[in-house]
Amino acid sequence: APAEQKPATPSPAAGAPAAPVAEAPAVAATSAEIPEAAAPKLEHADSAVIIRRHDTLWQISRRVYGQGMRYSTIYLANQDQIRNPDRIWPGQVFKVPEKSQEGEAANLKAMGDQMTTAPTKAD
């Protein structure tokens, strides 16, 4: 006796028409829509430094003020960005006061190409 064959039934995924995919329109953000915290304004400052890998406040202070112990001057000037003075990150831009708290003048040329313009907060 020949074997009976059942007609093939299409699976729901194969037989169902594809659902239309709604594409979201690409919208470019304008500078007015970008929050100020994400894009701080830059102002020229002769006394700012870009933090590099392995930098410490102690090393920067030693180069700028001649004594590592003066690191608190840099810390206090940048308290808004430094939660822990033992943890600073590459790419951060710190203000370096022209004089330490003890009145010692900063040797800003000692920082070489790490000197830059510093970001400021919006008033």
What does the model show?
With 123 residues, this protein is an alpha+beta fold. The protein has a domain at 39-119: LysM domain (Membrane-bound Lytic Murein Transglycosylase D, Chain A). 16% of the residues lie in helices and 8% in strands. It has three helices and four strands, in the order αββααββ. The chain has helices at 12-15, 57-65, 71-77; strands at 42-43, 48-50, 93-95, 118-119. The chain has a two-stranded antiparallel sheet with strand order 1-4. Strands 2-3 form a two-stranded antiparallel ribbon. Helix 2 (57-65) packs across helix 3 (71-77).
Keywords:
123 residues, alpha+beta, Membrane-bound Lytic Murein Transglycosylase D, Chain A, two-stranded antiparallel ribbon, 3 helices, 16% helix
What share of residues is helical?
10-25%
Alpha-carbon distance between the two ends: 93 Å
Helix and strand composition category: alpha+beta
CATH class of the domain at 39-119: Alpha Beta
Q: Can you count the beta strands?
A: 4
Based on the coordinates given, report the CATH architecture of the domain at 39-119: Roll
Globally, the shape reads elongated
Reported by name, the CATH topology of the domain at 39-119 is Membrane-bound Lytic Murein Transglycosylase D, Chain A
- Beta-strand level of the residues, as a percent range? 5-15%
